Amino acid sequence: MAEQTKEERVYAVFERIAGGYDRANRAISLGLHRRWKAVLVQKLAKTVPPGGRALDVCCGTGDIVLDLARRRPDIQATGLDFSPAMLRQAEVRRGSLRNAELLRGDALALPFPDGSFDAASVSFGLRNTADWEKAAAELVRVVRPGGLVCCMDSFVPENPLVQPFYRLYFGHVMPLLGGGRYARREYRWLYTSTEGFLRPGALKKLFARAGLGAVGTQAWLFGACALIWGRALPFTENQKNEYTSRTILKDKEEYAHE
Questions:
Q1: Where would I find the H helices in 129-227?
Q2: What is the pLDDT at residue 240?
Q3: Extended strands (E) in 190-246
Q4: Among 41, 107, 122, 248, which residue's CB has the most CB atoms within a 10 Å radius?
């Protein structure tokens, strides 16, 4: 049997854990993820003009897109995910909310023209895509020049004194707390995906290369969660294609040894 690709593995993980995903997130983060996501939603809500449009990629069960739509009933909020099971959970939560739409799609090939949105975000999803640089470029591409782009994700804390405690909790306690006996392997894999992800500094540089200006960051829990944001700049197709795997690997090595 052929080995699963990353895309196939991620798809299988989220199809399996969708039903208990929200409960697991509350347990794993001790409820802190709500505060972190609220900061992201607030940034989006302050940025999108009346009648504007916002996009949340890898929207999962809809935390960001639905909260934003409720806070700003005067805008159109779109959530996109490639997992039907996660989208079904989001549809249930959406209820009768009219200014939110949920679409199935690929973060690496967003089905929207350039500059379609006033703001775009991805939360706890970029690291699970098969190509971080392409996903970042797509996120920036669909936002108008001057629009806001935000990325929130999980990271390995850079403080070596914190790392043993982080790995003990997220590598061993978290899979059982989040997945129990039924889905502990899936939550163990989510921890593994964080271990293999870029450090915040490297991701900040990636988004700057993708066409963001005034890039900023905010971190919580000793750096285990961080938000990166910036403003989309006008850029050419050639610039979008400048990202290479060699550059990404170089950044990973640079920040892994800091």
A1: 132-141, 163-168, 174-195, 200-210
A2: 47
A3: 212-220, 225-232
A4: 122
* 141 and 113 Cβ atoms separated by less than 8 Å: no
φ, ψ dihedrals at 33, nearest 5°: -60, -25
Q: Which of 169, 167, 217, 233 is nearest to 195 (CA)?
A: 167
**Cα–Cα distance measured from residue 139 to residue 188, given in angstroms and rounded to the nearest whole number:** 28
Helix (H, G, I), strand (E, B) or coil at 150: strand
Q: Which residues does the chain have with pLDDT short of 50?
A: 1, 237-258
CB atoms within 10 A of CB 163: 14
Residue labelled with tokens 């971190």: 219
Instruction: Enter the pTM of the model.
Output: 0.87
Domain ranges of the chain: 6-256
Q: Specify the residue for token string 């963001």.
A: 212
Region 6-256: CATH code: 3.40.50.150
Question: Residue 236's CB: how many other CB atoms inside 10 A?
Answer: 9
The residues with which 120 forms a beta bridge, in sequence order, are: 55, 149
Q: Please write the tens of the pLDDT for every residue from 8-65.
A: 888 888 898 888 877 877 877 878 889 999 999 999 999 999 999 999 999 999 999 9
221-234 burial, b at 16+ Cβ within 10 Å, e below that, comes to: bebbbbbbbbbbee
